[in-house]
What does this fold into?
Amino acid sequence: MIYGYVRVSTDKQSTENQRFEIENFSKVKKIRIDRWVEETISGTSDVSDRQLGRLLKQIRRGDTLVTSELSRLGRNLMQVMSFLHQCMEKDIVVLTVKESYELGNNINSKILAFAFSLSAEIERNLISQRTREALARKRVEGTKLGRPKGNAVQYKLSGKENMIRKMVSERCSMKEISEKLGVNRQTLRDFLRVIYPEWRKLRYFK
It folds into this structure.
């Protein structure tokens, strides 16, 4: 039996592209997908918690699993290698569309699978390392990282302090000011607490 496996990480993504790729691949290879397995779940989830894990228990010796790419099987080296190892022990062939891999129970397949997974893991680690180094460099340069401390709404209206003070002095209501600035009244109140705490004493300003 030939299985087609597609996976996306969130429900905002679609499995249609992967399925389309596998269907075209099947036509070229002159094979027919007997059963589709589709799921929406993060690749970081344990395989046993995924439909892929349940499929692994059902799939039989000599069956074939087709997926768009090896990264659909997991998000790290150990996940991908563990799954491929179990497939190879059962004499299950794994075909990938994008990489054109045909992985079975032979030494060449094992070496290729390991090399691919290892390179993917190294690349992720390098990206993470570059990110950490860039952040460290910015800290040394004195750049403030992350969200500014304090109430975030303070920064939404930054630069409009004089305009707000002028409108308050002209006896504009809080509703009029918030509508003109395009914010809700609570946002305006929170900002006024920072730049104009005396507004609370103004009876007309509600």
Observations:
- Residues 107-140 form the longest helix (34 residues).
